[in-house]
Amino acid sequence: MEPDRIPAAHPALDEQHCFRLLAGSSVGRVVYTVGALPAVRPVPYRIGGDGSVLVRAAAHSELVRAVSGALVAFEAGEIDEADGTGWSVTVLGRADVSELPVEEVPPAREDRSAGEDPSVPAVRPPRQVSIRIRPELVTGLLLPDTRS
């Protein structure tokens, strides 16, 4: 029996490569603390023109309360289930919460299904805000084939 193979150290990716990988994905995870305990929330995101990670959230959510002004981590990656290859990028930075620009606020839902009471007002989704994670440290790595 062969001893377990210890994979060679994964070479670190430069920041530019990390941002190219992040730009090609749309779902990541925000890592923050609640009551001194770690919490992780999967979120859709996009990368802003200044390299910030941009996330939408409900204005009164636990996520917004916990991250506003805090140092947080954001991670995104992809892993092939068949061979284990992939990548992972982590962004550490302060999270700022701000109002969404008017053009990004979803409108009230005016369409009604058959049978809905027209006297009931249209439902507006919860007020949304933008969470901007300004990168202070960006790290990434490529994951090698893990098949034996």
Description:
This protein is mostly beta strands. The chain is 10% helix and 43% strand. The chain is built from 2 helices and 7 strands. It has helices at 15-23, 62-67, and strands at residues 27-34, 37-44, 46-47, 53-58, 71-79, 86-99, 128-143. It has a 7-stranded antiparallel sheet with strand order 2-1-5-6-7-4-3. A hairpin with a 2-residue loop joins strand 1 (27-34) and strand 2. The two termini are 13 Å apart. The model has no long low-confidence stretch (mean pLDDT 85).
The sequence of SSEs as H and E is: HEEEEHEEE
Helix content, binned percent = 10-25%
Number of strands: 7
Structural class: mainly beta
pLDDT averaged over residues: 85
> Which segments are poorly predicted (pLDDT under 50) over 5 or more consecutive residues?
none
Q: Strand percentage, roughly?
A: 35-45%
Tertiary shape: globular
What summary fits the major beta sheet? 7 strands, antiparallel
Rg (CA only): 20 Å
Kindly report how far apart the N and C termini lie.
13 Å
Strands in their spatial order, largest beta sheet = 2-1-5-6-7-4-3
Seen as an oligomer or otherwise, the chain set is: single chain
How does the SSE layout of this entry go?
Layout: H1 15-23, E1 27-34, E2 37-44, E3 46-47, E4 53-58, H2 62-67, E5 71-79, E6 86-99, E7 128-143
Antiparallel strand pairs: 1-2, 1-5, 3-4, 4-7, 5-6, 6-7
Short description:
This protein is 10% helix and 43% strand. It is mainly beta and 148 residues long. The mean pLDDT is 85.
